[in-house]
Q: What sequence folds into this?
């Protein structure tokens, strides 16, 4: 049964910009940044192996790391390990699948490492494209964040919630639950991340339907005359520009990033069983031309210095217990996430759900 206990967590990020790309590096390059001398020795050994193999670069295909907000992470890696140049290329979904299809068919591999949504990672693993590897620094990663039967691990996550324009909606009047979206006062004022294509919009509808909501509820949402937008970035932009009062679903990382730049937006995060997380996973591509460099980056990712930067610069939450969340976001143990839909089942279900949603939202 759906929980009616939904606590609104107002996101109010006031992040202080601190560059990882300049200034005194004596603090950030200490062994403590790697989690201590034991981790440092393991990473030094991986770095030595990469240099011995002649790995002078690393190519990452990523849903996240190909964007500008990830540059501080890549720059920090290159400071730690200056012999390796990191090239992160944006890629996910069908576009990435097509690229990997070509590389594997031609046996001409370019990419070394994937950092993508768990559903994408699982799909590539099922095709035999992910090399099993356990980073020695990642022993604390919880079982719930182990991907592809241990071939890969969760890398970072965001939480989906309800956004609003603070110039149009007061915090105490903003929707506090998914049911609140059906209030007649929001008719014609909602921007909805389109559920008619793979993405956060389809994801939230799928999780709602799996947790006590019905297609009749979805029809009532459609009757609110929401404006469908093609992705979270477009949703944030529309909300920030005042073209909508409410935006759903709101991904914490993109909303926190926009708010840090001064956008007039707020966010509520339903809890008590009403939360959905968007998990990304990392794994080494089978046949990677720079496999040793990939092992080094993959292992370095789970160190304290990286977790600090992804929270402060990328506004992403960590998969490691006790790691500080992005400023303005509650700790992970404050959420009661809905049960994960197994990735293979998720992909199969989503196609059927999108097909059923088309006549409802057209």
A:
């Amino acid at each position: 049964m759906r929980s009616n206990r939904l606590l609104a967590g107002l996101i109010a990020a006031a992040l202080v910009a601190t560059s990882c790309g300049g200034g005194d590096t004596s603090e950030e390059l200490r062994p403590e940044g790697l989690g201590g001398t034991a981790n440092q020795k393991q990473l030094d050994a991986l770095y030595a192996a990469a240099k011995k193999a002649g790995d002078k670069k690393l190519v990452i295909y990523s849903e996240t790391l190909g964007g500008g907000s990830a540059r501080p992470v890549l720059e920090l890696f290159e400071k730690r390990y200056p012999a390796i140049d990191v090239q992160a290329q944006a890629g996910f979904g069908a576009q990435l699948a097509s690229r990997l299809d070509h590389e594997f068919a031609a046996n001409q591999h370019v990419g070394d490492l994937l950092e993508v949504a768990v559903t994408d990672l699982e799909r590539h693993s099922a095709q035999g494209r992910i090399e099993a590897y356990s980073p020695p620094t990642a022993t604390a990663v919880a079982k719930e964040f182990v991907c592809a039967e241990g071939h890969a691990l969760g890398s970072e996550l965001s939480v989906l919630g309800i956004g609003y324009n603070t110039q149009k909606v007061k915090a105490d009047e903003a929707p506090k639950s998914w049911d609140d979206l059906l209030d007649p006062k929001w008719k014609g004022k909602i921007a909805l991340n389109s559920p008619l294509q793979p993405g956060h919009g389809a994801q939230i509808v799928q999780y709602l339907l799996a947790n006590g909501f019905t297609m009749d509820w979805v029809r009532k949402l459609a009757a609110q005359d929401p404006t469908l937008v093609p992705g979270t970035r477009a949703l944030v932009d529309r909300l920030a520009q005042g073209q909508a009062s409410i935006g759903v679903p709101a991904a914490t990382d993109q909303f926190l990033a926009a708010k840090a730049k001064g956008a007039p937006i707020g966010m509520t995060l339903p809890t008590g069983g009403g939360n959905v997380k968007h998990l990304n996973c990392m794994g080494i591509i089978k046949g990677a031309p720079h496999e040793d460099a990939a092992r080094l980056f993959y292992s370095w990712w789970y160190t304290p210095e990286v977790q600090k930067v992804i929270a402060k610069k990328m506004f992403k939450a960590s998969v490691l217990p006790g790691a500080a969340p992005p400023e303005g976001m509650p700790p992970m143990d404050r959420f009661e996430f809905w049960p994960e839909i197994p990735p293979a089942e998720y992909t199969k279900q989503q196609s059927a759900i999108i097909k059923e949603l088309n006549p409802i939202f057209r």
